Amino acid sequence: MHSPLTRRGFLAAGSGAAAATVLPGLSGCSALAGADSDPHTLVVHSQLGTTAPGSPTYLAALDRFRKENPGLKVKNLINGDDLAQVYETSRLARKEPDVVMVNLYDKTLAWTDVGATVDVKDHLDAWGLRERVLPQALAAWTDGKGRLRAFPYFATNWPIAYNRALLDRAGVDAIPTTGDELISAARKLRAKGIAPVTVGGNDWTGQKLLAQIIQTFLTEDEARHAYSTGDFGSRGAREGIDYFVTLRDAGVFADKAQGLTSDTMTTQFNTRAAAIESAMSSALAKVPADVARHTEVGGWPLAGGAAHDKPTILRTYTLIGFWISPNGTKKIDAVEKFVRFMYRPDTVSRFIEESGRDMALRSDAVSTDFPLVAAAQRLGSEVSQVLLPDVYVPPAAAQPLITATSTSFTRGTSAAKVRAALETAYRSA
């Protein structure tokens, strides 16, 4: 794993010798050649543009923006999961793009603090955009020093999707709301050759579901403490781990879940090989229509004595934001035009209507062509929201937690070993 970005790393890379040491291995990365000193060229670095949900809408938005601003060129750089590393490398070379579209997680948590990106709070107010943003999103993107890391944009709901047709085939009369009901449903589904809960136990999807289940017995403050410090020794955390292990060893999760990925998970659910998945909005938007019409969304079943009174879901407002780089401050007029355009109600509504995206901005648009996304947006008092730990996990612990997740989903791993794996992930933080 690459070490997280630090101020010392930036200062060291400022000298020619240090930069030569740091950069050669990544000299072919697209963003290194991405900076453009031309004040009439805006360079945007994004994960949108290929197969990522919302890419066609984003590319169409760029075309409209170019037509409305004929004197301003836009260079669109695209990376996938390696975007953060590519951006950091380009920043070390002082060739970073002007605007970065990425989520608040892992490496990006440190960017504003070490000067890789700038505080955008004053720009938000000067450009009159504060009222466009949901208050929850502003809170989520603001760090402990009151700095707004980026302009919030994508959000997501993260419920549990239940294929009612498969549950009915297995003789499961109702959506499970308790752990006992879930275990009973899993046994009936397996008897029919159907995997119960599919999950990417070897990647971020499994890590999020594990965190959600552990929080069954934790208040929000207790969860924040556990994921900020790596201390899973409280009574509630231990009870949550015990609950997870009980479900796992009862066969609730798909076979060999510790080796599955998010792609495997969505494929199993979308092809009716599995009846249940923990699905964020982008996954819900991909569920085929013939499966979606038989699918309901709800929360994760609770155990007796839970800290919550309703099945739980996750929500986050930090999925994608517009970060401004130091290079971007030199073209702030162009950046303003771009952000204003992307914040316009008509642009925002297209992401909702055409791509089924949840947004961190105010909008009256509805995802009518994405019924499961719309259903998740309507979930209210029938579910309880638990903490998404992303902004609290130290960057150095993020990837080790994925390894700990795979260990945790391996059947037969004791609750004590699960706890040890989770706490070990924080030792390098």
UniProtKB/TrEMBL annotation:
PANTHER family: ABC TRANSPORTER SUBSTRATE-BINDING PROTEIN, ARABINOSE-BINDING PROTEIN-RELATED
Keywords: Sugar transport, Transport
Pfam families per the UniProt record, alphabetical: SBP_bac_1
Residues of the signal peptide: none
Biological classification of the source: Bacteria, Bacillati, Actinomycetota, Actinomycetes, Kitasatosporales
Record protein name field: Multiple sugar transport system substrate-binding protein
